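User: structure tokens for this one?
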Amino acid sequence: MCDIVLISDPRVAAIPVQESGEALADVRGRLRIDSRLADADGSYAHLRAGLLVRLEKAESLLPSGYHLLIVEGFRPIPTQHRYFTEYRDELVAANPEMSPEEAYVLASRYVSPVDVAPHTAGAAVDLTLCDPDGVEYDMGTQVNDNPEQSDGACYTGAANISPEARRHRDLLAAALEPSGLVNYPTEWWHWSYGDRYWALMTGTQAAVYGPATF
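Assistant:
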């Protein structure tokens, strides 16, 4: 896992954004969506229109009996800032010797810094797999289990998961990668399209989605 590029890497922030102006679209009524992170405004259920189309393509590539289950899409900047700050502060409290720079990098394994966060662009989606009745398949951890809670099993390539969970993660990737999405390898559930991290990972010169307004 030492070759993982974290989203705090300066190369990510160096990617320019050529905003497409594409609108946010509502996932509800088009794909299955879970309400565990629902907000009063419904922002969680929105994604850039082009990303949603790609997810619909990915859904069509899944084997019979498998469906995408969307957990969270667009995230307002204040929410993203709160998530990052709270997790960073937890790390510092548990490791008082940690420098601010170290805390920033370690926090970015699990929550993106606001200035490069793909969720605030509507460019990222947290999702899992479920059966036709909405029952989630075993993916090795729950969505949003952090590295400390999961003993690193949240990493997409983690060795400490069952063969069944590995098969399910591979099924998810086999549908999402051909649809143009990239995974953030510290979080098996986090996939994105059009943001700076996606641009760096795909060799694209610029991101097409910057911070969005809901």
